[in-house]
Design goal:
Layout lengths: L2 E2 L10 E5 L2 E3 H8 L3 H10 L9 E3 H10 L2 E5 L1 H8 L12 E2 L3 E6 L5 H12 L2 H5 L7 E6 L2 E7 L5 H8 L6 E7 L6 H12 L4 E6 L8 H10 L12 E4 L8 H15 L2 E2 L6 E10 L3 E10 L2 E2 L3 E4 L2 E9 L5 E2 L1 E2 L4 E7 L8 E5 L2 H14 L12 H9 L4 E9 L2 H12 L6 E10 L4 H10 L2 E5 L5 H9 L4 E4 L2 H15 L3 E17 L8 E15 L3 E6 L2 E13 L2 E2 L2 E3 L3 E8 L8 E10 L5
Parallel strand pairs: 2-5, 7-9, 7-10, 10-11, 11-12, 23-24, 23-25, 25-26
Antiparallel strand pairs: 1-2, 3-4, 6-13, 8-9, 14-15, 14-22, 15-21, 16-20, 17-18, 17-22, 18-19, 18-21, 27-28, 27-34, 28-32, 28-33, 29-30, 29-34, 30-31, 30-33
Helix pairs in contact: 1-2, 14-15
The structure holds guanosine-5'-diphosphate.
Guanosine-5'-diphosphate binds next to helix 5.
Length: about 600
């Protein structure tokens, strides 16, 4: 079923669309009955980079659907399948207990980061903790011998990152609500999101150390959004905490452990591993680095792996403390080194017994996916060449470098939607990482613009760029980059001729005929203006029996034997005409003007 009745529980009525675990972007656009480019644009706003043939997952569809006024609902069976994927039924006999994976969400400034920091600093030995130099997005803590994995949703973009980090790989959502501020829009979003992903919710009512905190009021607000606290007879576990003083945090951790015991979360240990790529980036010194959450099996150093179209061999594995490890077990967040390129976040990483098996898996994935845009690919080369050969096309050459593969694909995808007659974008080179000397050289030899997205230029590139006067353009918002590219295209476009019809007149008399030998017909006739107006220098179209038979220019206009600039409908005019045909009595003549207008790529 594509569309259902509006959901009666919603305050704002939205059209419901039912989908499965994932949906191809263009199919979703079709279900929404909107243009696919509009959907891609909406995805971009949410920093989700998907091409029209790519699949987006359910969570993503919920987010963009919401923005576009749709309620995306999942078939119940799929929802359950996802949540219970790693439960005993689908696992081998050797499956054992695994740590719960907890995602922390909440309204901005309600204390999410403070809570995660506090948990980390009080539950990881000081020496080890000191070893964490960079922000970790996922970590593990031990409480009474039980391990818990926490995942952060950075910044206030909980939703896009939830998608990227895969809501369905987490087991539980902790929603942080400040006791002095209560339920806020992002709290509601987080709750809706957790519910749509089928995640159980524990509410951490934070900042109870503050004198102005009002726990009871928060509970009332929670019950208003269908989260009735247990002590009020509902099902929602609420724990009062202070992320600042640490009060109540032990209690929160106990609740999480209690929950995971009840759920009997299990996974296999020792079998070929399967994990989920949470994030990835290119480290210029060591190459592609990916953060992976192990979901099942054990990943070991030296294992052959495939992730999407990429394959490789695990060279180095590190835990969240940055310590090298040899094996990674279920629910562990780790960083890996050994893939040939930067994998996309959201991809599944799997281990295989041999290199050839891993390579075959990557190849099979490539064949399955229809999206062919990737690093180093040139966009629609054949189309561009064809037009260039016809000499009709000007090309805007671009060299594009971006911080991640995801943003690069998104940029290429959106540039592909810019179609303007007479000019085309030709992407000469794309790549992940900073702008380098070779990028600048390529730009120089082909008069290309160099665009950087969320990155910078290395020292050599800067030096050559300055010397050769090649400017780099840096962006961190795709729309700004698109605006720049459109501006450049506009500058390349030839002005367009725009015709405006002025009026119509009927020839009532011929006053002066042209000389017979003249090449150009030069004559004077009398006409009645029937519509609009006519003016000096107007272009004229001669119509006879409803068909255009010739054209010319009105070189002089007279009214009552006086020369005038223009004449309106209802007047008789003496018209001096220069053209390519002899005008006859009874002809209809359309007067119009043409203007050159600069074209703007919108
Ligand atoms: P986030 O946006 O949800 O990550 O919120 P932060 O963790 O950055 O916290 C926002 C502000 O609230 C910071 O100034 C914190 O110091 C403060 N804060 C967080 N938790 C508590 C708390 O339990 N008590 C008090 N008094 N302040 C807190």
């Amino acid at each position: 079923m594509d569309k259902q009745e509006e959901n009666k529980n919603e305050e704002v009525k939205k059209i419901s669309i039912e989908i499965e675990d994932a949906i191809v972007v263009k199919d979703l656009a079709a279900k929404m009955e909107i243009r696919v480019t509009d959907l891609i644009a909406e995805l971009m706003k949410n920093k989700i980079f998907a091409t029209l043939n790519e699949k987006i997952d359910f969570e993503t569809a919920v987010i963009v659907g919401d923005d576009l006024g749709f309620e995306i609902v999942r078939k119940k069976s799929d929802l359950e399948r996802n949540r219970y994927l790693l439960k005993s039924k689908t696992l081998g006999k050797g499956a054992k207990k695994r740590p719960p994976v907890v995602v922390v969400m909440g309204h901005v400034d309600h204390g999410k980061t403070t809570l995660l920091d506090k948990i980390l600093s009080t539950n990881v030995a000081a020496g080890e903790h000191g070893g964490i130099t960079q922000n970790v997005s996922s970590y593990q803590v031990k409480k009474k011998g039980e391990v818990i994995t926490f995942m952060d949703t950075p910044g206030h973009e909980a939703f896009h990152s939830m998608r990227e980090r895969g809501a369905y790989i987490t087991d539980l959502a902790v929603i942080v609500v400040a006791a002095d501020d209560g339920v806020k829009p992002q709290t509601k979003e987080a709750v809706a999101f957790a519910k749509s992903a089928g995640l159980p919710i524990i509410v951490a009512i934070n900042k109870i150390d503050k004198p102005e905190s009002n726990v009871e009021l928060v509970k009332k607000e929670l019950s208003d959004i269908d989260l009735m606290p247990e002590e009020w007879g509902g099902k929602t576990v609420c724990v009062n905490i202070s992320a600042k003083t640490g009060e109540g945090i032990d209690n929160l951790l106990d609740m999480i452990i209690l929950y995971s015991d009840m759920e009997e979360l299990k996974a296999e240990y020792g079998s070929f591993a399967e994990g989920f790529i949470i994030e990835s980036h290119l480290n210029p010194k060591v190459g592609p680095i990916a953060t992976v959450l192990i979901q099942n099996g054990t990943l070991s150093e030296g294992d052959f792996v495939a992730a999407g179209i990429l394959s490789g061999r695990i060279k180095i594995m590190k835990n969240f403390l940055g310590e090298e490890i040899e094996d990674a077990t279920p629910s562990m967040p780790i960083t890996i080194l050994g893939l040939s390129e930067v994998p996309r976040s959201g991809m599944v990483l799997k281990a295989y017994p041999t290199r050839s098996a891993a390579e075959a898996a990557a190849l099979a994935f490539k064949e399955r996916t229809t999206s062919t845009l990737g690093e180093g690919k040139v966009l629609s080369v054949s189309r561009i060449q064809e037009m260039a050969e016809n000499g009709k096309l000007k090309k805007l050459n671009l060299v594009i470098k971006a911080d991640t593969k995801g943003s690069l694909e998104a940029i290429v995808q959106i540039l592909d939607t810019i179609k303007v007659s007479g000019v085309a974008i030709q992407i000469l080179k794309t790549g992940v990482g900073d702008i380098t000397e070779s990028d600048v050289k390529m730009a120089q030899s082909s008069d290309a613009r160099v665009i950087g997205f969320n990155n910078s230029a290395d020292a050599n590139a800067k030096r050559i760029g300055e010397k050769e006067n090649i400017a780099f353009k840096f962006f961190n918002i795709i729309y700004e980059m698109v605006t720049y590219v459109k501006g450049e295209l506009s500058d390349m476009l030839d002005a367009e001729t725009v015709r405006t019809d002025l009026g119509k007149m009927k020839v009532i008399a011929i006053f002066k005929l042209p000389r017979k030998s003249a090449k150009v017909v030069d004559m004077i006739f009398g006409a009645k203006i029937e519509h609009g107006k006519v003016e000096k220098n107007a272009k004229l179209e001669i119509m006879r029996d409803g068909e255009k038979v010739g054209e010319g220019i009105l070189t002089e206009l007279q009214h009552n034997k006086k020369t005038v600039g223009e004449l309106k409908s209802g007047n008789n005019a003496g018209v001096t005409f220069k053209g390519d045909i002899l005008v006859e009595e009874g002809d209809d003549i359309v007067a119009y003007k043409e203007e050159k207008v600069k074209r703007i790529v919108k």
